[in-house]
Batch of 2 targets.
Target 1
Amino acid sequence: MQLTRHKPIVTSLKPSNHPYLNGAWTPLHEEVDALELEVIEGAIPTDIDGVYLRNTENQIHQPLGRFHPFDGDGMLHQIDFANGRANYRNRFVRTRCFHAEQEAQDSLWGGLMDRVGVSKRPGFGAHGGLKDSSSTDVIVHAGKALSTFYQCGEAYVVDPETLETEGVAHWGPLDGVSAHPKVDERTGELMFFNYSTHAPYMHYGVVDADNKLIHYRPVPLPGPRLPHDMAFTENYAILNDFPLFWDPEALKLNAHVVRMHPGIPSRFAIVPRRGNGEIRWFEAAPTFVLHWTNAYEDGDEIVLDGYFQSNPEPGKFKDAPQGYEHMMGHLDEHTFQSRLHRWRFNLKTGATQEETLDPRILEFGTINQRVAGRKYRYVYSTTSKPGWFLFTGFVKHDLETRTSESYELGEGRYGSEAPFAPRIGATDEDDGYLVSFVIDENRGTAECVLIDAKRIDDGPVVRIALPHKICSGTHACWADRQFIRDRKRP
Ligand SMILES: [Fe+2]
């Protein structure tokens, strides 16, 4: 392995016993390029060609108040596969806020758990008091990686092969772009949404394969809401209005208190992908959903799969350090109880049907992106460590046969969201690999694993050593080199 370390960034973070600034959530501040990574076990397949990108949250400066892991600064990690070889690099996303805090050599913004007044500068996005850290999601569109922030911010354009930040997406509207824009690889289009505390509270937009904003319309809501993800089919985008949102009275005092309103149903907006046709609304059981896996049209019905939360306002986590009880409750899938779920919306009758697909606690699902928006068969979910926002393994569901198989990473080993990398020339939907970074707390190291998606329970076909231990984070994606270069599938 050839390792190049880059000029260190300025950091003012002091050691602490914060549960999400230690262990697998210890922030990484080093930026490197590593060529010809070493294999720990197995062999790097020669039949994939592309990049895995992961966004992580690495706090650089001493927090002004109480730190929440979603306050951390966005860092992209990349592993690039070609011809049976793998290279790695990582870079902080050079956001406006990153540069401002590097210049100040200190934090300028408070976090999610702080009062808005803690920030020394005006904040960004729906919350209004936060730093736009671009640390939540990463996808590839129009040949570029886009990193985004869950409270709505600017979409940062990053070269997916060099990880150089090129600036902000020129098409981003004033209310910003939420995390989880979606790309239809068949058309090359990107669909996005944003939300805010002012009417009409939500918008939906489309950016084409040539990176032009071609559609933007309001999707009016009854008040400020906290949507996190969207889905799409061949003809529709699916947005949501869940009964978990900021308390309206507290919001008038500029305080952000999230409350579940169990008497209010969940509502789903079926929006034509383009044009200003009618938005159809459907009601369903009250819940909150962080992430969808996929959606598709099936005759008169729209089918939507995602993770239904049985306990969206989980309250205090009893074993948390003082002051962090609510934070740890909201970060624990076993406390908010997310399960794979299917909603069916009948466009003819207006009726909704729903069912639980698996009783296990799961979240952070991925699919073969070539079937995004179309009828699909396989979904890959993650399991997590009770009490913690840490991924411990993967479950593959066959939605046709309603069977599943799984793989657990082992004690002290924590994975990352594992997108599907299709094998070159693949025709089967599950002909490819799940790609994940694994933090090994037993050894203080990190590695990349590839798992044959047809044989999840066999475990990794290769384990590749990363040059440093990385910090845990949220989302990741896979992009074929051909898709990066061509901007859509031929
Ligand atoms: Fe997310």
Target 2
Amino acid sequence: MEYLSPNPSISQDDQFDILNEAMQLGSLMPVTYQGLVVENTSACNAKCRMCYQAAGPTGSDILGKASLSPEQVEILLADALHIPSLARRFHLAGGEAFLRPADCFRLFRTARSLGYEDITTTTNAYWAYTPNRAAAICQEARDAGLRRMEISWDFWHLDHIRADCVSNALEAGARFGISTVLRILTTQSHSIAEALSHLRPDALELATEIQSCPVFPTGRAASEIPPDDIFYGQDLGGNCHAILHLTVNARGNVYPCCAGADQTQGLSFGNIHQESIRDIAVRMNSSRLLRTLVFFGVGALEPILREHGVQLGDRFSNICHLCWEIFSRPERAAIVHQFFREQELHEAQRLEQLLPILQSAQES
Ligand code: SF4
């Protein structure tokens, strides 16, 4: 490879490395997203003890009271369509998005008219307080384009939501052609069977899917759920690239997922009130920090923190819990950001050295 050697100050191996980095970053392996998640409010009618968003009637304990207007979300929906590595799925979440059902219907309609192929939502189904009310909401949502409804339900919701609301929503979803997914969180003392036992058996049979996941101690759960009741996992070596959703929280901050990082300041890559989501997505795609996190896994950050005297401990539910323990703490997030800033600076200097080599290759 003759053209790799005009600059004798860089070894041929280094030149290959630099070229590989320059070519691969962002283009050969873009960070891909399963869809766009918009959390248009931090408020929720309920205030569940396990809530990872710490949401409640006056807003989130973490984010405060914040919301995105339908107009802002519509601009976001249109912009996001220009991100090539984003699947055409729109998921509306909160807080509780259905505090304002008319806004939900409007956003489903807009998303459908823009070309989103899969339109989904998460709700606690509080609005389904009678079968007629459940039917009216589901019919209008389906007409507006909603195809799938994830319903949060578990032991902790019982303090705030009547089980009959969830049963009504399952029945109305089935009647109007909306797939329903019951999402149930568990701890050692509160099982999936316990949560399901409160629902009407006939309604339960109409659920399209039932998913269960252990509570992990982030958000309000970190202070409200006894640590010994949590399930802890052993494997923290996984990565999350296959499950990412480009997420905008109620403050307008942008994240690679809605799995807890979306409630931190440390993993925000920008704000839609200041720049377009397209520009933010471009920056995310070339971020060494994000690429390390999603392709190698959050475990790859542990040695960086250890080097700076931070011991993370070993009681984590899963990789997202570990991620939250890093990025929800400003001092830890700062160490990680500084490390990758230095890496990116170093890389920029190497690319600058490479430029004359590439130019000379083009000329020859
Ligand atoms: S590990 Fe972090 S970035 Fe990845 S999905 Fe979990 S919270 Fe999101």
